[in-house]
Every structure is written in C-alpha cells, then in structure tokens.
Amino acid sequence: MVVQNNAQIIVQGVLNLVGNQEKPISFNSSSKQPGSWGGFACDSAQSVTIKWTHIDNTGGPDAAGDPRKSVSVTTPINVDIEDSWFTNGQDDLLRLQGGCKITILRNTILTSGSTDGEAINIKGGATGTVAYNVVYSQAGTGIKMETSSTVPIPQTVVDVYNNTLVSNGWRRGAAEPGRGISIDLNAKANIYNNLMVNNYQGLEIFTGADTINTKYGNNLFYATADTYTDTTVSPNIVINLRSQFYPGDGVGKPQASDLISAAVGDKDPLFKSYDGKIATANGATTSNDFHLNAGSPALGKGNSTYNADIGAYTSDAKGNKH
Which of 14, 18, 219, 295 is 20 to 30 A removed from 173 (C-alpha atoms)? Predict the structure, then answer.
C-alpha cells in the first residue's frame, strides 16, 4: 500500500495485517523518504496483528510538527507483531503501553529514530514476550521497559531473550545515551541470550526497576573498537565502549554466564557480514547480515530455558527468519 500526503492510519477496530514469507505486505509513502507518513495509531483498536509486513519511512510530523510513532497502542488489547520489517521511522517504532498483552517476535528494525526514539518501547503495565528481534542503528534504546513513577501497578513484565542489538543509541548522544536494553520504573524482566554489539550502552538496569525480580544472564557483549568519539556533544567526548556494557550509573552487574569481550577479537560473534560501524544515520542503507558463522561463541552458550544459542539467529528453527 502506498500512503500519500503524510497520512496516518487510525485503527478503531481490528488491525489484521497477515502476509507470508513469499508474499509480504508492504506499507510505504509515495516519496519513500524517512518520516513521510504517520504510521498506525492503534490507541482505539480492539486488537493488533502484524505478520510478514514491511512498514517503512514512518514518523511523519503531526500538526504540531512532532514525529509520530510507527505503531502506538495505549489500551489493554492483544498485540501480536511477528516476522515484520520496520525501517527509517522518526520516533518510537513500537510504543506499547496501557496494559496491552504483547508478542513481539522475529522482527527486523533498521536505522530508525531521527534524533530520538526507541525501537521497542514498553510501558504502563504491558506484559508479554520480546524475542528473536534484530535492532540496528536506533537513535535511542533497542528495547526499553518501564511501568510508571506514579502508577506502579499494573506492573510491566516482559521476557526479553535472543535479540540481536547493534549500533544503537548514538544519535541521542551523551545527554541521554541509548542502550541495547534498559529497564526502569518498577518494571521487571527476564533478560537472557541477547547479543549486544557497539551500542552506546549495553544493558542498563536502573535503580527504579524491580531489581529483586529482574533476572538476567547469558548475554554477549562485543565492541569492534576500544573507543569511539561522541560528536553529538561539544566538546566531543571519547567513550570507552567496553566500560559501557554495564553502565556505571546502573545497578546491573556482569553475570558469570555472560560472554563479555575484553578486547577487539575476543568473543567476536562472527556475523556473516558486518561493516563494523559504531554509529550510522537515520535512513542509512545497510547490507549487514547478522546471522552467525560456524564457530561463533554465541552458539551453544545460551540459557536453555529460552534457547541453546545467543542472539536472534539461532541454529534451531525458532529464530529470526529474515
């Protein structure tokens, strides 16, 4: 479907976009430029199902000039988003809150968020699973979870496992670094088997999270360089990438089951193809292939409750199909 004139699709009933691997559905603007249409406003929807669908170049401005989300849900409905592609949005790709029940599986999210925005932003008592997704070059955080500072119940509760999160968080810069995964404000999660490479920060567990009930481990952290210069601030600052795997302002700590790189080449996940770029622009083209080569340290090192391997592309039939 071609969307004209920065239009937004407002869903007041059931959104049911179900393509298949051979014939995916496509939504794009006529210009095919980042931020050129308004995405899906599902705040009045009864349910949302999106499978094998391309949703590209969303985030077009609202009447006040602010970028819009790609998919927004604020009510306690079922949300099932699987095997789909999202590219070149301008703000949050998926904003899921209001007690919705989520299943977010095997999606690919690329080069989105202009100067802000999370890829998968889960808030306000949403519950469910986020697994086998690939998030590359998001302006903010790949997967973010919060409840509320004022309304702590119902609690946001999510299983977050076997996601591949690469080069996220750089366009927002030091003022509010983006992370591979973050959890805050009375949210709790199980965070296992995620592969995080070249993110501004890796796994951030804030003091406000439900730290007693949040469990994590078997995550792989890697950087293709020792340092990177953040040019979003003046004066520029040099970031020690490995010191950011578990940021010092959080309470998360390396786990014995984690695979944590100590130097370039150590615990390299051995992607099929990766240009090694640490930061890329919104809307940048990419030919990276985050499947794992034989001999990758991510293979066979996962928490078997979720999967034997680490990352979105696993050696069984459960992982990302793209």
Answer: 219
Q: Prior bond to 154 cis, omega within 30?
A: yes
Whole-angstrom distance, CA of residue 220 vs CA of residue 202: 10
Mean pLDDT of the residues in the chain: 96
Which residue reads 């795997």 in tokens? 245
Name the pTM for this structure: 0.97
Whole-number pLDDT of residue 285: 86
Neighbours of 281 (CB within 10 A): 13
Please give the angle made by the CA atoms of 48, 195 and 176, to the nearest 5 degrees.
75
Question: What pLDDT score was predicted for residue 10?
Answer: 97
Residue 194, amino acid: N
Closest to 189 (Cα-Cα) out of 153, 168, 217: 217
Q: Low-confidence residues of the chain, pLDDT below 70?
A: none
CB-based contact 80:94 (threshold 8 Å)? no
Handedness of CA 29, 31, 33, 36 (dihedral sign): negative
Q: Tell me how many degrees the CA angle 69-73-79 measures, rounded to the nearest 5.
A: 115
Given this model, what pLDDT does residue 218 score? 99
Residue matched to tokens 């130097």: 263
